[in-house]
Structure formats: structure tokens, C-alpha cells
Amino acid sequence: MDTEKIVRGSVIHVMNYVVIELMRFGYKLAVKNELADLKDLINTNADKWMRPEANEETGLICLDDDLDLLDTLDDAAVKRLMISISRILKTVDTYALISSPDIDELLEEEDLHDEAGGIFDAYSVELAEDGSYGNVLDNLVMYYTSIYMLLWYCITQLELGRLEVYDEALQFSSDYYSSEGHEVSLKEPVSGLLLELSEDLGRDSVLLEELSRGNLGLEY
């Protein structure tokens, strides 16, 4: 598979990984209260949470069903998290229309899945847990930083047209956030799409942080 196809196709897989990880946080919050009865049925600490090879371990059935279930919950943090997921899924759909109309074919490409998995893992951080609702919420807020870096990595790959751009992605994002008015020149329309997503998710993380501050010391 040529580099351009890997660069463009892996973005969709990276976004899917992020959605799945956000869903994990959604369940970690939900089993503290509204879904407490499912606590022993859902292993939110599975190393390969909700990935195909771990379905039996997690007890999860269908990604769409889990999204629907989380979408019915009243928890304010879960609701905000679901807004973020909706933004990402909408971006994936638009990205596919612009860049990769054969999305079903790309989703079946094992090479793209593996490439995206490596990128996702590179920006994954193990966060300390104490079992409380407030701690899960704090960790969720911190996880948005990983999402930003994943998005900037994807943007940098698209802009440079090559793989392995970890250093360049860090520099690119630093230049952006240190520039007056947060200005950046992008040649790829889909890069702008991912940058817009990053900004929208930034607003979501601010609201989640406000919820987190209001829940300091709160346990379910």
C-alpha cells in the first residue's frame, strides 16, 4: 500500500480508536451511578477495550448499541462526552466524503488499522486511578490532551504526506498555539477539518473541566 493511502486512510482508524476510548470513559462514569447494575458485566479496564479480539472479555455486543445506551444517560459529563463523540463521527463522515469515499474498504484494511493503532498507542498515557467518579472525570479531561496530539499528528501527516512525524507534529502544534490568533497555513482541506474538530473538542474539554471542579471529592 502506498504512503498516501496509508496517511489518508489511517486518520479514519485513529478517530475510531478515539471514539472507542471516549466510550470507555463514558462507561467508567456511568457504572458509578446510572449503570451501576452493569458494573460487574462491563470491564472498563480491559487492555483492549471494545476491540474485536476483546469482545468476550468486555461483554459488549455492538458499537452502535453502546453509543445508543450512553446517549440515553442523564449524567452531565457523559452528555458532554457524547457531544464530543458526535463531533468526531460527523468529522469522520465529512473526511471520508472529501478524502476517502471508499470508507468501508478502508475500514477493512488491516495495514491501516495497525498503523492507526501504533499512532494511538504512542499518545496514550496511563493515568492514576483511585476508583472515584471525580477521578474518572479528571482523567477524562486530561485525556483530551492526547486527542489534541493525535489530531495534530494526523494533520502533520496529511500536510507533509509521509509517516512517522512525531517530532514534526509536536513542533507544528507548538507553532500554532504560540502564534498570534492561532494562525496556520494548511494546504490540505481535510487538515482544516481536523483542526476545526480540535477547536470544538477544546471547548468540550473546558466544560468538562468545569464539571470536574464542581465534583471534587464527590464519589458514587
UniProtKB/TrEMBL annotation:
Domain of life: Bacteria
Designated name of the protein: Uncharacterized protein
Organism: Pedobacter psychroterrae
Organism classification: Bacteria, Pseudomonadati, Bacteroidota, Sphingobacteriia, Sphingobacteriales
